[in-house]
Amino acid sequence: MALRVALKTPKGTKDWCHADIRLRDHIFATIAAVFAAHGAVPLDTPVFERSEILAGKYGQDAKLIYNLQDQGGELCSLRYDLTVPFARWLAMNNILQIKRYHIAKVYRRDQPAIAKGRLREFYQCDFDIAGSFDPMIPDAEIIKILCKVLADLDIGSFTVKLNHRKLLDGIFQICGVPDSLIRPISSALPWDAVRNEMILEKGLDPLVADKIASYVKLKGGHDLLEILERDPAITSNPSASAALKDLGLLFNYLAALSILDKISFDLSLARGLDYYTGIIYEAVTQASQDDSIGSVAAGGRYDDLVGMFANKPNTIVPCVGISIGVERVFSILKSRTPIIDQNSVQVYVMAFGGGKDWTGFIAERLSICNILWDAGIKAELLYKNKPKPRPQFEAAERGKIPLAVILGQSEYPNGQVRVKKLGLKLDSDQGDLVNIGDLVQYLLKTLTELKL
Amino acid sequence: MALRVALKTPKGTKDWCHADIRLRDHIFATIAAVFAAHGAVPLDTPVFERSEILAGKYGQDAKLIYNLQDQGGELCSLRYDLTVPFARWLAMNNILQIKRYHIAKVYRRDQPAIAKGRLREFYQCDFDIAGSFDPMIPDAEIIKILCKVLADLDIGSFTVKLNHRKLLDGIFQICGVPDSLIRPISSALPWDAVRNEMILEKGLDPLVADKIASYVKLKGGHDLLEILERDPAITSNPSASAALKDLGLLFNYLAALSILDKISFDLSLARGLDYYTGIIYEAVTQASQDDSIGSVAAGGRYDDLVGMFANKPNTIVPCVGISIGVERVFSILKSRTPIIDQNSVQVYVMAFGGGKDWTGFIAERLSICNILWDAGIKAELLYKNKPKPRPQFEAAERGKIPLAVILGQSEYPNGQVRVKKLGLKLDSDQGDLVNIGDLVQYLLKTLTELKL
């Protein structure tokens, strides 16, 4: 039986323990509260999908999908994001309009860098709005939600980089990129890397690349939009022109939402995923840039994904969404604030006594604990038949437990216990003698006074 | 792109939506509160483990493990339960003593029966106590926790079936079962099924089977323990005798915890998993028996599992735990109480107006929503540039939203909006005119009055 195995979690995965879970759950709760404040309902999908659901959705990143072994039956893969399962769910249930959020783990066979919050199993918090609406109103609300989440998380200064897939497509057309290279060129990588790959491997004309470079270096706010609106090459391209119309509306709405100062209209922003069709955005924080963590959130509009699944022809369920990367947020918040690990237990139930006839009050301690547990009071005891005082105090101290209930050898048979405040360094304090019948009431009162 | 795929979740899995998630989260919160009241800390492990971690832990059930495809690198499998990952975590971190809880999905390639809460992907809520302690004290606390959880879930009347692995082993020895058949015979299946398999396929002597049957039909409480203590065949068997000593202590502690009436000492109870070494238990409810759902929770003592992983020789970290099956609890609670789906949004922001010069106040509505969102008030608006009143009221009604803030064509330019209570069927009520600068305060006061 004593076969030795390598004691580790799979590459790129980690265990979450104690205080880290408290910080993680604080992040989840903060994000979910913002999502719910905007009317979203929660959804949870299986951790794996039928493989054909994921096929053709992720472009070159598809090689990062985890597949389950073929053990008979369906071929399945771990979900790569929460967006494709959402689209599958919408199509499967013929839902044409909804706001939903989903907080769950996703899986990518990428090169991990755990300290930077880049893992193979990691959490995403997604909010999406599905439905046919007047243009750019839900898009603006999503960006507001992103800003509110990052502000509520107190993550420090941040910028939302904004671009439009149709503007990128238009620019590539204007610059003379062949149609077959437009999707591959819309990579999430930095332009220099994409440029080299395109020229060396895909045969892109370097002059075309230089023309693209003159566009993708542009950054700004509403001013950049005005510059592009005066560029006849852009305005005469139908795709780019439609994008400028969207962006004009969006800037108006972002002004109404008082978040223009957070926005950087950045033509170098490209999202790698195939399914985006409209605006795209990424949030970077000062902290994430300093630590090369990359973006803490990203998303965009994907109007055709649900239609790819729908059984009824010509079903269009336009969507726009945001995905927040919990591990990256976690890395930033944890590096800033030390997390205090604390037990939430309120009372340690102890026995004091000695001599060979002393029973150790184990059944009696269980009985007192039982009264406290049934009253909703959080209590622990030492799992020892005849405990000495010191290990009981030490256990209470380790758990930062504020109160002790002590069953004394002479007092307990008279129906009384002592209640003692811990951590006061007053060894002379013997605590208060309390009748067992009054114990719950006494403890609840004391815990209220101590604000515990 | 319009490749048609089968729109379904993988066999034995399901999506969780809206109101179901609310009930599920209520179950999680109820269970976690009990676990925390007993001093447990939360743990979360990756959804898959290195396959060798799972190997040799599940006996005949190992065929139900989901493996990941070999895509290079480590061989991994989806977790089958939360117990083996816990033992791996204890050994990996050299933790000798802890109480931890873990609420997460586990995976079994079993025949699903979704209506009965039997799925391939399902939730378990586990609480375990690890550490070397005086005997049966943590075991008693675990059974108390189980009873408290089921009571707090308000699941109806229930019974905790109790048995001891060493008592079963002893009985099999006494009856003359060959050593090689003792593990296979300790199946979770009903005795009749095991008996037939043992006789027909494994060559067990039918007389031996009859002798076993005379024991495994026994059920009772403390009285049954007394009967067994008078059986010289039992008391002269070291394994069975050790079990009786454990059970004697346990019954004392269960009496101190006032839960003897919930216990059925049942010699037919066997748990299939290889790793149990001491007491074992399962909770069945009246509802779960009526609907053939089976047990809603199960667990036991497993003293050797951590040692199978530990790098240091002779490391022993005895453990005892309980696992609660959320889907089965969910089935029972959902069938009993209709769940009301409700939106938690508090305010619907509307525009009233008309005529060709009317803008529809879309930027203005976003701006009012923005003020409410920033004040923590949950608000929605219709994503339409020039909405008519009816679809706005209908949307608010669908979401059961209690208040409307109305931007009127003539009032808004004067810095005022109307606040109207919805759902009152008083169409004559025009609501109150409120200055925009006072709106947040007014709404917070109204929501407090309405207890929302």
TrEMBL record, chains A, B:
Residues 21-333 form the Aminoacyl-transfer RNA synthetases class-II family profile domain. Its main location: cytoplasm. One of its GO terms (biological process) is mitochondrial translation. Its EC number is 6.1.1.21. Keywords: Aminoacyl-tRNA synthetase, ATP-binding, Cytoplasm, Ligase, Nucleotide-binding, Protein biosynthesis. It holds the Pfam family HGTP_anticodon. One of its GO terms (molecular function) is sequence-specific mRNA binding. It catalyses: tRNA(His) + L-histidine + ATP = L-histidyl-tRNA(His) + AMP + diphosphate + H(+). One of its GO terms (cellular component) is cytosol. L-histidine binds at D81, L82, T83, R108, Q124, D128, R271, Y275, Y276. It is found in: Cytoplasm. Belongs to the class-II aminoacyl-tRNA synthetase family. NCBIfam families: hisS (TIGR00442). This is histidine--tRNA ligase. It comes from Neolecta irregularis (strain DAH-3). The lineage of its organism: Eukaryota, Fungi, Dikarya, Ascomycota, Taphrinomycotina.
